[in-house]
Each structure stands twice: as C-alpha cells, then as structure tokens.
Amino acid sequence: MSLSQLARTIHESATLKLNQTAAQLRDKGEPVIHLGGGEPKSKTPIDAIVACTGVLNSGDIKYTPADGIPALKKAIIRYTEQHYNRLVKPVNVIASSGAKQAIMVLLHSILDPKDEVIFPAPYWVSYPEMVKLAAGVPVVVKAEDGSFCPTIEEFEAAMGSYTKAVILNSPNNPSGAMYSPGFIAGMVALCEKRNLWLIMDDTYNRLVFDGKPPVNCYEYTNTGIDSSKLVVINCVSKMYAMTGFRIGWAVGNKEVIQAMATIQGQQTSGPATPSQYAAVGALNGVQSSIDSLRLTLENNRNILVGHFRAFPGVKVTCPQGAFYSFPDFSAYYKDSQKLSEFLLEKVRVVTVPGKEFGMDGHLRVSFCGAAKEITEGIERIRWALDPTSPNELYLGDRRLVRDWM
Hints:
This protein has 405 residues and is an alpha/beta fold. It has two domains: 153 residues, Aspartate Aminotransferase, domain 1 (Alpha-Beta Complex); 239 residues, Aspartate Aminotransferase, domain 2. The chain has 13 helices and 14 strands. α6 links the parallel β3 and β4.
C-alpha cells in the first residue's frame, strides 16, 4: 500500500496513544494509575447539559454556518469582552471542533510551503505535527538556561526570512509555567515589529493559581483587531471539563477568520450542532464550576509538588496554572521514553515522555485526577526509582519486590 509522504512523516499523538494504552490495561483489570491525562475529572456544567439536551429534544438538528451558530459567536464575543477587555464583532470569531481544529485551520490559512512557525520548548506535542500538516516548518526555541521560557533575544535569534508565525501557550502544557507580562509584552512588540502572526493558545487561561490573574495579550497592543496579526485561541474543553464536546474558537482579524471559515467549511462543514449549544450554555451559565475546578487543581498541585520535592534526585518547578507538572528525572533516566515505558511496565503508572514535548529527561505528570491517585502514583514511581524506598510494594493484591535496581 502506497501512502503519501506526509502520512509517513506525521507522528501519532503520544498523549492519545497513552490514553488508549491505559484504557486497555484497565479493561484487563490492571491497577493502572493514569498520571498522563489531559482532561479534568469534574463533570460538565449543568447549564451546558440543559442547553444541549434542549436542542436534542427538539429533534431539529441541522447544518449550521461553518464558522458557528450566532448564539455561540455572541457568547464568545461576551467572553472576550469580559476576560480580555476587547470588543470584537461576529466577523472576528470562528467556532471550531476544538481548539486543535481552530489552530489547524489557522495554520492552513496563513502558511505557504516552507514557512516557519516558532514556539518554545517545552511545547504541546501537537504543534510540530500540525505545522507540518500545513506544509510549514516547525522551529523550536530552547532556553539556554534550561528553564521553561526562552528570552525575547533567543526568540529573535531564531527568526529568519521564512518565519511566519509564533505560537505561545500560557499557562503551558506540559510545564504549567505561565509567561510573565513582560515576556508577553515583548513578544507582542517583536511580532508586530517583524509583521509576524502571534498565535496565543489560551486554552488554560482561566486555570491560574495563587490568586494571580491570567496575562492578557491585548493589553500590550494598540493595533485594532482588523489590522492585527494577533489571534487568540480558546475552548470549553479544559476550564469547563468538556473535552468530549470538541468546541474551541479563534478571535482575530476578519480576513483571516473568513479564510479559516472557508477552509473549515470544506473540512467539516462546522462544529456539531448539539456541542455548540452546550458551549453556549457553559459560557452563558453559572461560572462557579471553573472556580471549583481551579481550587481542586491548586490543592492537587500542592500535594504533587510536596511529594516530588521529597523525592531525591527529582527536580520540579511549581506549576503556576493548567494541570500538568514537568519534573526532571534525568538523574535516573536520560531517555524519557524508556523511563515512561519502565514505569508503566513495572508499577503501572502512566506518564508522558518529555521528549514528546521537546525536553528529554522530563516526564509530564498530570494532577487533574484524584488526590489519592496522585499520591499513590508518585509513591509507586519513587519505589521504582529510589533505592532508599521500601523494598516491597503492593499493586492491588499483587506484592512486588524490587529486583531490577
């Protein structure tokens, strides 16, 4: 069978593959602890359920405009005004089947072959493959000091004649790091100076800890929305725990939004109708579920960081948002793929290798599950790696004795 060169070069999503592996092991009765997950365990808000059920009960579920129903656009406009202090119009908004599709159709709309898209390491696993799917070239910027945020100067040094866009994700997946206001201001200024697209992936911008506000990129530009190359991406997936509904959106200048709508119309004809109404319910409904989720995640983060800081040889930076940590295990394993496989095989803990995010030696460890699972998962990891830990471990009713150190 002859597949295209593109099909042969695009890698499978590591996180989705791990989800599948964890599900298969659980189906076999294995005591798996999934610390690699990327979705909150809280329930979908009732306002979203009611809105979705209402349209389902009507039986009138038909095609919608490719860029989203008017009610959803109106809710997104209201959201943008409330949380970004920026008033936009329907022509500046497109709703998509998740933030991932919004980014994908945006890349298809702005990239020509060989155009480069720059983003910092660590990065979301899908960015390089999405850029390649749009015929672009991914360019990764790594901080010389080993931190999770390169400097403005390091970004500028990576830019060249083929550079077309920059992607920033804050709070960051996989590190939980949040870029500073000064850094965001500097990147906005740099992209405007060089006439580059700046794509702000704000998927986690409502899940920020320690009482800090999210950084608003619009505060650092005086350019009008229709003259700007700043595009903000968001979704209901994480903050409303609605990953399965697959609704995201982009806010940008009307020319690029129109191009995105045209491409999306040819791809999927637009997001699913019931999901769009569910998103309207979530955005317009009671917002207490976000506060509750944020407080739960912050508590989980504190538990996780406390355990890792007591773990000899492991270096952990305290996440400022989202629900991921990115500890450095290189004192034990330089190869994060081998480490992740070892932990799954020996102690049935799912983690995501750091090399998938552009930084080997690290693992992405999620804290969006139950506090008990986080504690037990880290205890299993420590038992597998730390020779000073007890010699025995019980996985359910199975007794393990360390014999591989």
